[in-house]
Amino acid sequence: MTAQTLYDKLWQSHVVHQESDGTALLYIDRHLIHEVTSPQAFEGLKLAGRKPWRISSIVATADHNTPTTDWDKGILDPVSKQQVDTLDANIREVGSLAYFPFKDKGQGIVHVVGPEQGATLPGMTVVCGDSHTSTHGAFACLAHGIGTSEVEHVLATQTLVAKKSKAMLVKVEGELPVGVTAKDIALAVIGKIGTAGGTGYAIEFGGSAIRSLSMEGRMTLCNMAIEAGARAGMVAVDEKTIDYVKGRPFAPKADQFEAAAAYWRTLVSDEGAVFDEVVELDAAAIVPQVTWGTSPEMVVGIDAAVPNPAAESNSVKRGSIERALSYMGLAADTPISDIPLDIVFIGSCTNSRIEDLREAAAIAKGYKKANSVKAVLVVPGSGLVKAQAESEGLHKVFIEAGFEWREPGCSMCLAMNADRLNPGERCASTSNRNFEGRQGQGGRTHLVSPAMAAAAAIKGHFVDVRDWQFNA
Amino acid sequence: MQAFTTLNGLVCPLDRANVDTDAIIPKQFLKSIKRSGFGPNLFDEWRYLDHGEPGMDNSVRPLNPEFVLNFPRYKGAQVLLARENFGCGSSREHAPWALEDYGFRAVIAPSFADIFFNNCYKNGVLPIVLPAEVVDKLFAATAGNEGYKLMIDLAAQTVSTPDGQSYAFDITEHRKHCMLNGLDEIGLTLAHADKIKAFEDQRRQQQPWLFA
Fold it and tell me: Residues of B with CB below 8 A from A127's CB?
């Protein structure tokens, strides 16, 4: 038998039917649902007189619109409230495997909730009306974002019409320097291949540096595959994967677990499997990354400076750099460490898990935020992450540093709730997109790791966390 | 879904690479639970000088005269000419909904982001990939000729210029068939319901933990 990639295996094991032009019907194991991209799908289903195919595939939560303060007051924005109420009504009507409504202790960002509940299992196809569904690929799942018409299609048929992508291997070998994280790998990869570098591909992340990452680090990395243009990112199964899943609420129980784990261990690319494209990075050479522009590919190391458009020969690219610098209010050649911050946001489906909060707290411990920084929001990814952080006392470290300890949700990653930047405000953010207006109209976003964000909050400008003086 | 057969449409050029779906339709408009009505907020942050929120009367908002969609010569445009990686970022289908609601039926670019590309087909908006050098020529021709139109023929898979140049584009047979006939894809898929059921039954036996 020919050697297969992990992607080949995942694809092949889900094909229900294939047309002569390669268009396939893929069976969907897990359907994650949130309030923003589902109301029109449920409405469409109802109008056509159709029923959901398999409600036990559905895991739902409200995350995009939910506030991160004053939960006792409910959702004040009536339009946001209507959307969350609509999800509530739809899920209660059709049913689900699990639903974590607003204020539930398990509520949180859908891509944090799925894995922590064991609802994301190796070998699954996982879809959600959200581009950061790629996160779940960390469990050797074929996981990607879909549009609302496809949400309706999956509800009605338990399948997706799809065409196989090409396969890319991003191989990161070597040891990451202290202070350099999965987020920095993700940004370095995007800096290397560009935001369209992965378009048309499913990316597998491999190599010794990836094997060394925790499951949470792998989630951060796969989460940002979409920012490299790839709908799906994935990491092969190893014992870390299996250990992470074991004992979680929706994981297989004792009698089935060993059979499941035996199958999961086959979810690796075979020796000699051929990829359409291979990209290699040296982990030891990666420095903490900071984006300077309005696309995640506009990224440099903390030791570098904002680029000069005059050095770019391609006119479309030069125009993009000039427009980005103008929007960001930055002068060419400014050292990254000279950039001052107004706001710091630690959260999002990229970086709001317990290890991210530990990483930020380790930096913040014994320090106060800079006076020039107006606010530092720490938004845990879920109610369970929040409870865990509080049991470890991390919230006290943040509060003593002058940071705000918030309720879980998507928050300022996309600013659909009240958490947003004002025009001209500059933010160090652990989220995934620095697009114009993403965190609020006129807001300026710099993407960084949780450690880099916390350090910037303390110093008021970007600093190199590799040189950080930790307090015991 | 609206069928797409041929279109002879006015072209509007949007000369920026990496236009993301946050720019196409900003997040505050995603709070709607409807599929329609997004057109007035297409490119909201670029198109208006004030900050847009749902429920505003868009007809009285100050327009940004420097944004191409507001140029009188592009009023009524049905073909959007764009640059690399158009539609990157968020999976929001509100982006093609907004383009379609505004009146665009086709987008031409050297490349598209995958999710947006896929979402377009579900809404009768035809995304067409043409080589970068052809797109460059079309940008120049659009700038140089007021009222510049392109003729798109889906059955023939061609984009033709007024001076008789014709460029071929690719599309899968499945998508072409659905677009030409305005088909409901769910209906087509449910024709395979027995196959789906059989696949599911087999899967339930082999991996029962997926069906707990």
Answer: none
Q: Under CATH, to which class is A289-467 assigned?
A: alpha beta
C-alpha–C-alpha distance, residues B127 and B118, integer Å: 9
Shared-domain flag, residues B166 and B191: no
pLDDT per residue as tens digits for the range A95-146:
999 999 999 999 999 999 999 999 999 999 999 999 999 999 999 999 999 9
CB A457 within 8 A of CB A364: yes
Is the pLDDT assigned to residue A464 strictly greater than 80? Answer: yes
| Low-confidence stretches of chain B (pLDDT beneath 50) | none
List of chain A residues whose C-beta atoms are within 8 Å of the C-beta of residue B54: 79
Instruction: State which residue of chain B sits closest to A227, comparing Cα positions.
Output: B89
- CB contact, 8 Å: B72 with chain A? no
> Does residue A383 sit at the B interface (CB-CB below 8 Å)?
no
Q: Touching check for A266 and chain B: CB below 8 Å?
A: no
Instruction: Give the range of the structural domain holding residue B10, as residue numbers without chain letter.
Output: 6-181
Cβ proximity of A447 and A290 under 8 Å: yes
The verdict on residue B1 lying in a domain is no
Relative to beta strand A166-173, strand A30-33 is unpaired
Q: For chain B, what is the domain count? A: 2
Query: Looking at the partner chain, which of B51, B119, B199 has a beta carbon nearest the beta carbon of A149?
Result: B119
Domains A166-237+269-285 and A289-467 fall in the same CATH topology:
no
Same domain, B59 and B147: yes
Q: Where are the beta strands (DSSP E) in A347-415?
A: 375-378, 404-405
> How confident is the model over B157-194, as pLDDT tens digits?
999 999 999 999 999 999 999 999 999 899 999 999 99
**CATH 3.40.1060.10 is held by the domain A166-237+269-285:** yes
